[in-house]
Amino acid sequence: MKRALSLAAALALVLSLTACGAPKKAETSLFAMDTYMTLVAYGDGADEALTESARAINELEQLLSRTREDSDVWRINHGGGKVSSETVQLLARALAFSDETGGAFDITVAPLVDLWAINSDHPHVPSQAEIDALLPLVGSEHVSFGARESAAPGSYDVAYVDEGCAIDLGGIAKGYASDAVKEIFAAHGVKSGTVSLGGNVYVCGMRPDGKPWNVAVQDPQGDGYACILSLSDTFVVTSGGYQRFFTAEDGTVYQHIIDPATGAPARSDLLSVTVICPDGTRADAYSTALYVMGEEAAVGFWRLQQDDPFEAVLITADGRLVCTPGLTDHFTKQEGASYEIQFLSR
Ligand code: ADP
Ligand code: MG
Predict the structure, then answer these.
(1) Ligand 1 atom closest to residue 104's alpha carbon, by position in its atom list
(2) Mean pLDDT of the chain
(3) What global pTM score does this model have?
């Protein structure tokens, strides 16, 4: 089920290319970070760029996985220890996103992710007492860094969490991996390509025919698309309650994004949030956070970010598709999708 849905997300990238005169195309797919990934690159460096990207994604999974026993995240969650500077930098960014989003995005939500176990084969609806027992373990103050004597002055190489606490980078790791792919594409001179790491899309440059890429936003209530965005050189990340969820015996649907304030799956008035910006890590953290916030707080948050703006598509439970104004010239309504389209004013 999960795999099929992830594949659907990957296929949401609408490719319509003309064959004639097209530059060399290379394509690869892999299963990593619990999702299907497809990467396409054009140009002379395309093969090398894809080989290196796949290797980088696997290496990042090795560092950031919660379940691999020799990963950095495993070490942090099991008494702490020496970790790579890359992991430390990503952790520092994750904590900053938590701060910025008022705790809506919070990697220390891990004990509650485990309690509900929504992404597992054995999801569980816990009692309020079980939730209350874990809520004090959530918060950035439980994550610490230390420097070993051998470390360069001012650099940290040890990370740990307080007793009972844990971190989960599932809300940010794919975005971070997509940023790594962008750098690898650039290093190999790839000027055109598309990358879909589950719901995390990166569109590199323009299509070989010189037009922008078409990225479809999935309809959270059906198999089709809600709208199409024509974009270049940016990241498009969707979070939603419809991708990974389970239905309890009483019919209640529990999705996989936890509201760190309540310790329960977020009861969002949004069905999905798509964030578009030139930073894949930020887009990933924000899409998770805005889903938790719900429409009103998400729009308020967007307004506050005018110095470093991002674009977003919010699909609401009451049938509206709310777009930020920067998307006006990039937006095509999908025939057959019934959402009422609304553009926010600045
Ligand atoms: P996906 O992984 O399906 O692309 P997200 O980027 O929204 O979706 O991340 C959701 C994952 O992040 C969850 O499966 C869980 O591992 C973790 N998570 C859940 N709630 C939060 C939260 N409030 N903040 C940060 N990470 C979270
Ligand atoms: Mg995310």
Answers:
(1) 23
(2) 92
(3) 0.93
